[in-house]
Model the fold of this input.
Amino acid sequence: MTALRTPPDTPATCGDLLRTWRQRRHLSQLELSSQVDVSTRHLSFVETGRSKPSREMVLHLADHLDVPLRDRNQLLLSAGFAPVFPESSLHSPQMLAVRETLRRLLAGHNPYPALVVDRWWNLVEANDSLLLLIGGVAPELLTPPVNVLRLSLHPDGITPNILNHGEWRSHLLSRLRRQVALTADHELADLLTELEGYPCDQAEEEVHGPGEVVVPLRLRIGDTDLALLSTVATFGTPLDVTVAELVIESFFPADEATADWLRASAASS
Done:
């Protein structure tokens, strides 16, 4: 008796991927077709494979669907075209200007903490002031690649120093959930599952103080309570996958006492 073989998984077609991205953006075929000035009939044919899209059409649709550069390359490959967006190592010669820009930004932000992470929240660069916040964490959490979300929420990370742990955890997990929903990245989904499993002795809810307009990070370093606000920046009009996925997070003091402590600590280090 011949054993039945399970057929191999069929690779997703360009139409399959485009339909998935359209649905992920909560757009109907009619809504997308009106945005890109393509008939609904033609868009339907592309998604079902009855019509082969041109390279320009794939990129046009990907642009309107806000598909990340990494996934635009995958769309092109699935349609039979070569990728157009390079993925360069930050240590390569052509990335020298990017590296220097990042280091200037980080150094210029001292004495306040700032860092750069990649798509998976792995630490790429940090300024000296960040070291003021991560003293005493488990050494294994500082072994490269250092994941800043794991460093923030792991019980052996900076969690014991976070006064509003439940609120900050909720903030970080919400950011990660949105990222997973937007990208469908399996590594990010696995990271989310891991982080959701970490213990938290505070309710994971929003507990804002009076007059606050953003979620602060409240830390206790030694006998000093600190309050920090963060901003996020990215490179404009990136054409390289690596550059497109870099995120610069800068922390600012939320009160004068925190500013004084950071300035004094940086001066004495």
Notes: The chain has eleven helices and five strands.
